[in-house]
Amino acid sequence: MSGRIVVIGVGNPLRGDDGIGPAVVEALRGRVPGDTVLAVSDGEPGRLLDLWRGADTVVVVESLRTRPARPGALHTLTPAEAAGHHRDAASTHGFGLQDCLVLADALGLLPPRLVVHAVEVADVGLGAPLSEAVRSALPALADRAEASVRRARARNGGPQETGEPGR
């Protein structure tokens, strides 16, 4: 195992609450060990597979729609739940993380450890800012992602220092 840890913020900052993934990645800069890879993705499956290739641990931060909606509610999902087995939840992306997880599983390309931290959204309209509910959830969502990185780091036996993250 390489010990490589990758955090991927999935989303589009130009689409309101869909920008939460990239916002969490920005919030993690300087808070996680320096060799943690921090990346942003639009959720396209090929790019996601490339980003996590060779990683032992992948932490994905994503926006989520549920029915009934509870904007700002946080979720931690397994790959199976995020892939669509969680009946009442769906990614805000038409083709993205869910499809990527199904494909990666079928091809044997899932990393050894993958966790999805998500927040339920209120508004993903073009040009909208983060809603108040999602903006308020940002610190707790970043804390969850950081805790996942630190747990992976401890599991890998690596140092816990903080530094400027890799890209």
From TrEMBL:
The keyword Aminoacyl-tRNA synthetase does not apply. InterPro entries: Pept_HybD-like_dom_sf, Peptidase_A31. GO terms for molecular function: aspartic-type endopeptidase activity; enzyme activator activity. GO terms for biological process: protein processing. Residues 148-167 are annotated as: Disordered. NCBIfam families: hydrog_prot (TIGR00072). This is Hydrogenase maturation protease.
